[in-house]
Design a protein that fits this description.
The complex is a heterodimer of chains A (502) and B (288).
Chain A (H helix, E strand, L loop, with lengths): L43 E2 L1 E3 L2 E3 L6 E6 L4 E7 L3 H16 L1 H4 L2 H17 L1 H12 L3 H22 L12 E3 L2 E5 L5 H14 L3 E5 L6 H12 L7 E3 L4 H9 L5 E5 L2 H10 L6 E5 L5 E4 L5 H13 L11 E5 H16 L19 H16 L3 E4 L14 E4 L6 H4 L6 E7 L2 H9 L6 E5 L3 H10 L4 E4 L18 E2 L12 E3 L1
Parallel strand pairs in A: 1-5, 7-8, 7-10, 8-9, 10-11, 12-13, 12-17, 13-16, 15-16, 17-18
Antiparallel strand pairs in A: 2-3, 4-5, 6-20, 11-19, 14-15
Helix pairs in contact in A: 3-5, 4-5, 5-6, 10-11
Chain B lengths: L26 E5 L5 E6 L3 H19 L3 H17 L1 H10 L4 H21 L3 H5 L1 E2 L6 E9 L2 E5 L7 H12 L3 E5 L6 H11 L8 E4 L3 H10 L5 E4 L5 H11 L5 E4 L13 H5 L2 E9 L3
Parallel strand pairs in B: 5-6, 5-8, 6-7, 8-9
Antiparallel strand pairs in B: 1-2, 3-4, 4-10
The chains are: A alpha/beta (502), B alpha/beta (288).
Chain lengths: 502, 288
């Protein structure tokens, strides 16, 4: 873009006089929007039950907005008790009928079909995911959708090999699985839930989050196109009440939930006294530990990825930076410089690093935590970047001068907010890292191999990223210790969540 | 033959490698199969549970970080000690109604069960861990780590073999535990504690309380520093529900197994050990 004309009328561009990364005052990025012309969004989506799109029994619909523009995208049907019941009945019928009678090989081939069809329509799904949830197109295009397809591809192959997965045991499907997924990775979480459940021979009733149901309803089209038997996959939309109806339904054998620790505990409580199996993938407060001998520039990139990936709406986000004292000043300076180069804005723009906060409610939650942080004495640093006027956006934020007891250090914020603490010894870092009720993920940055293994083994968390962060793969088991959940998703270990082992 | 008046044993509880009395000072009577008084057992309180959990937590890191070979040898050592003291166990079993053959068989199977799990300590990681072929330049592997402090309600009607069968898989995997012994037959559990205490098991790894499940189940299940709870008897609906509800306070893992025949090979299972393991997955970049 030309450097000359109209500088007064242009929006404020971030500059950081002390920064070595000050590209913005020299160059500007042209807008590079991903086209959304080719995607079709209906005015209204029905429930997907027993292989058909059906109207909700009470005839109620709720609006879904694009959080980057605050404009209404479409409407989804609200499933109530009667709808949940017919979905469960359809799933039960399919489980006892056709789905159990076809061969494991064919079951797998249906899943392969789904993987391929997702790949074929990948761009459409990516655009929809960004419009519906606010995440940058780069992430939905390069992470969410390809990983979702990969997940189906991986579990497809397991369908006729389950006898090799658990030595000494004869695996059997559980039956009907109720699955409730969050809004941060809508399609990917759907894949994490549906792929292993089907591979193991179960049928499912899945409820996407109420703010991000679009790709799930599109996925229902794929299920039809792929020719899966009716009732094997049922997708119903609605909010917490719909979820509760699923959890409490008597004819469901297993509940799989991904979401907040608060709701997860409610679900565990609701299931008390029943014989339903459950897996929970809950919140986190991941520690990102940087030792003095770490490659510091790489560590800075790691922090950016750990906390600003997907606007920080990541259960395993590295939301607590623990940095060894000797390099703290340097690292924080470099981190601030790097943060000033982040582009916050239109999720559909391919230059965008950080998109929109998923919903007004989450926007308020994050701001509430920022207020609490300040009240408890934290110092706040925010990028000077411009943010759009409409929609929900939050500047990347650092909170320094915080202690272990501060609310913002103990509780999950689920936004682009990083707390920073320092430590002197490895033991102190481990102590601080483990000192929350969570145990989902953690990061270790050091150039010394033995230190990685030692610190990694002391972290009480289900995932350890060493000199990397926020990496995912269908073959890689994921899940939490302590209050971050029960059970694993992904990999061979993820199969056991959907099988009886006799 | 000179006259000898039998010295009766005082049965206390086992916490942190010591044999204290319940802090509550309370007791309950237990009887042999003839209806004669066998012992005044400790009627443990909520405070005893809390003390035991605290002690167990203190022992956790040390026990979890023992190498697998060492844990295996220690489990084997428990079996050796039990073998050496089998007469006392058989005598005690016969007092609560076991025939001579049954008592012998109970002790034999208990010893074998310990050896079974002793052998698993350095194998389950190989069988159930994994290297994961991720589609990026990372080395990625999953290992199993112990869940932490485990509460155990020992089987009511198998006071030795049942007890050994629930403790062994839990500690073989590096967990520590607080066990509530069979209420009617607690003396075997305290005898077993003496075996543990003389067999290189660090103090605090296994803690054994005696008392009433009706009273203590609430405190086991609601304790925020208990990570998992195992029971194998059928519990009444209300207690089951209460335990599950309390478990949700800290996302406790509740492991319910319906095991009636402790002699069966099916009651020993590496998957029972796995119920008290967490999978940890580590990623590291691969490159120059």
């Amino acid at each position: 873009m030309s450097q000359t004309a109209d500088t007064k009328e242009k929006p404020y561009k971030p500059t950081s006089p002390n920064s070595k990364l000050d590209f913005a005052s020299i160059w500007e990025y042209d807008p590079a929007p991903e086209s959304s012309d080719h995607v079709e969004i209906k005015d209204k989506y029905e429930l997907f039950i027993n292989g058909k799109f059906v109207k909700p029994s009470k005839g109620r619909y709720f609006k879904s907005t694009n959080p980057a523009t605050n404009k209404v995208l479409t409407e989804f049907a609200e499933a109530t008790q009667k709808d949940v019941d017919s979905a469960v009945k359809a799933a039960r019928k399919a489980f006892e009928g056709e789905w159990s009678s076809i061969s494991a090989k064919s079951r797998g081939k249906y899943l392969f079909r789904l993987a391929r069809m997702l790949q074929e329509r990948a761009r459409e799904f990516a655009v929809l995911e960004s419009m519906d949830g606010g995440k940058p197109i780069r992430e939905s295009r390069d992470v969410d959708v390809p990983l979702a397809a990969a997940h189906f591809f991986y579990y497809a192959g397991w369908a006729d090999k389950l006898d090799y997965a658990f030595p000494g045991k004869t695996p059997e499907p559980l039956g009907v699985c109720g699955q409730i997924i969050p809004w941060n990775f809508p399609l990917l979480m759907l894949a994490w839930k549906i792929a292993p459940a089907l591979a193991c021979g179960n049928t499912v009733v899945l409820k996407p989050a109420e703010t991000t149901s679009l790709t799930a309803m599109k996925f229902a089209e794929l299920v039809k196109d792929a020719g899966l038997p009716d009732g094997v996959v049922n997708i119903i939309t609605g909010a917490g009440q719909t979820g509760a109806e699923i959890v409490n339904h008597k004819d469901i054998d297993k509940i799989a939930f991904t979401g907040s620790t608060g709701v997860g505990k409610l679900i565990q409580r609701s299931l008390a006294g029943t014989d339903k199996k459950f897996t929970l993938e809950l919140g986190g407060k991941g520690a990102f530990i940087v030792f003095e001998d770490a490659a510091i520039d790489q560590a800075v990139e790691g922090v950016i990825n750990a906390i600003f990936f997907n606007q920080g709406h990541v259960c395993c986000a590295g939301s607590r930076l623990l940095v060894q004292e000797g390099i703290a000043d340097l690292l924080i300076r470099k981190l601030k410089d790097r943060m000033e180069s982040l582009i916050v804005g239109d999720p559909l723009d391919k230059n965008t690093d950080i998109g929109a906060i998923n919903s007004e409610q989450q926007y308020e939650t994050i701001n509430k935590y920022l207020e609490i942080g300040v009240e408890e004495g934290a110092d706040v640093f925010q990028c000077k970047c411009s943010i759009p006027d409409a929609g929900y956006f939050i500047r990347p934020t650092l909170l320094t001068n915080v202690s272990q007891a501060n609310t913002v250090v103990q509780e999950e914020i689920f936004g682009p907010v990083l707390t920073i603490q320092t430590f002197r010894t490895a033991d102190e870092a481990i102590e601080k890292a483990n000192n929350t009720p969570f145990g989902l993920a953690g990061g270790v940055w050091t150039d010394k191999g033995s230190k990685i293994f030692k610190v990694g083994s002391e972290l009480r968390s289900g995932v350890v990223w060493a000199n990397t962060y926020n990496k995912f793969d269908p073959t890689s088991p994921f899940g939490g210790y302590k209050e971050s959940g029960v059970g694993r998703e992904g990999g061979l270990h993820g199969l056991s969540a959907y099988l009886k082992l006799n | 033959m000179s006259e000898h008046l039998e010295v009766l044993k005082t049965y206390k509880i086992y916490v942190g490698g010591n044999f204290p009395r319940t802090e509550s000072g309370r007791y309950y009577k237990v009887f042999d199969s003839e209806g004669d008084l066998l012992a005044n057992a400790c009627l443990c309180s909520r405070k005893d549970v809390r003390d035991a959990v605290k002690t167990a937590r203190g022992a956790f890191n040390g026990w979890a970080s023992r190498n697998a070979y060492n844990r295996g040898q220690i489990l084997y050592r428990i079996a050796e000690m039990l073998e050496g003291r089998r007469a006392e166990f058989e005598k005690q079993l016969s007092r609560i109604g076991f025939t001579k053959a049954e008592a012998e068989s109970d002790v034999n199977t208990s010893i074998d069960r310990l050896i079974y799990y002793a052998g698993w300590t350095d194998k389950y990681q190989q069988v159930f861990g994994s290297v994961n072929p991720v589609a990026s330049a990372h080395f990625n592997f999953s290992i199993l780590e112990p869940t932490g402090v485990t509460g155990i309600f020992a089987p009511e009607n198998s006071p030795l073999l049942g007890l050994v069968s629930v403790i062994a898989p839990v500690i073989a995997g590096g967990n520590v535990c607080v066990v509530l012994a069979s209420q009617a037959y607690p003396t075997l559990s305290i005898l077993f504690a003496e075996v543990l205490n003389s067999s290189d098991v660090p103090g605090g790894v296994v803690n054994i309380l005696t008392g009433k499940k009706e009273e203590l189940a609430e405190h086991f299940s609601s304790h925020m520093d208990v990570n998992a709870l195992l029971y194998t008897d059928a519990l009444n609906t209300d207690m089951k529900k209460m335990i599950d509800e309390n478990a949700s306070l800290n996302v406790k893992r509740i492991v319910k197994k319906n095991i009636e025949d402790w002699y069966s090979d099916k009651s020993q299972d590496p998957y029972l050990l796995l119920d008290f393991q967490e999978t940890k997955t580590t990623w590291h970049p691969v490159g120059f």
